[in-house]
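Data availability (excerpt). The following record was deposited with the supplementary files.
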Amino acid sequence: MLISDPLYGEFEIDGLLDELIVSKPVQRLKEIHQAGAGFLVNSRWTISRFEHSVGVMLLIRQLGGSLQEQVAGLLHDVSHTAFSHVVDVVLENEAEDYHEAIFMDVIKQSSIPAILEKYGYEVENILDTSRWSLLEQPAPALCADRIDYTLRDMYFYGILALEDIQKFLQDLFVFQGKLCVKTIERAEWFVKIYYQEVLDFFLHPLNIYATSSLAHVLKLSLAKQILTLEDFLKTDHEVLQQMKASHDRDVQALVQQLHENVEVREEQANYDIHFRNKVRLIDPAIYHQQRLWKASEVSNYVIAMNVSALERFEQGVYVKIINEELS
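Predicted structure:
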């Protein structure tokens, strides 16, 4: 299999990775939108969990990660439910980790263990993400997961130029098993881009409207037994169709409020929605004088960006609905 990725280039994939990519659990991710409900109100917000998962795998490969870590990267989002993190709002799960809590159960009930065993790997061993320092790191450190979703979203949604992404990737390397950058300039650049992702995009008023509105109708559908929690392991489209096919007027009316003609704005004085989500901060490691430094130890810009970001996360977003009518 030849994979051509706009961020990382072309890679030839065979054997285990090939079989996993074409497996049903991984293919399902093509119909799980990374931005959750956002695609319902903005048709440009269409990056899928599949694109991100393959991207994480390729980034790990590009950085010299082992085959096992590439597998872990490819599979790390298999348990994401329909509409990604919207389920965490439905379940009032502030840690936003429902998909992580069900990860091993979802994996074990799928075809993945048999594929791994065919190549001599045990599922518990290879999918223990604590083993893989490139794939995942506790915030605010760099990791392949955090880097890929930031660069991918910001590129496809028109914020980043490919040339700037390539400059960052050329500056990125592994030291003592940890991801870091070579220069303060690249660290500051990524901090800026990361906050454009997790603040300006994740907390975009239209995104917040979509998340809040969809969470409301999903909660109602669960209460009316139109959906079960197990249904969230279907695709976005399948769950939407299940709600639409219910013929429940309340549910159908709420679903119809999710469309591209919605108009909202951020407004604290007279708001309809106040939304706060998980705090996401970033502080990249910089390799300097043969050791690693946190960017905040050498950059006042990074310190200021993190202080500002924390204030925005704690404040949340206030959204005023201007128009919900489908014209």
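Summary of structural features: The chain has a mean pLDDT of 97.
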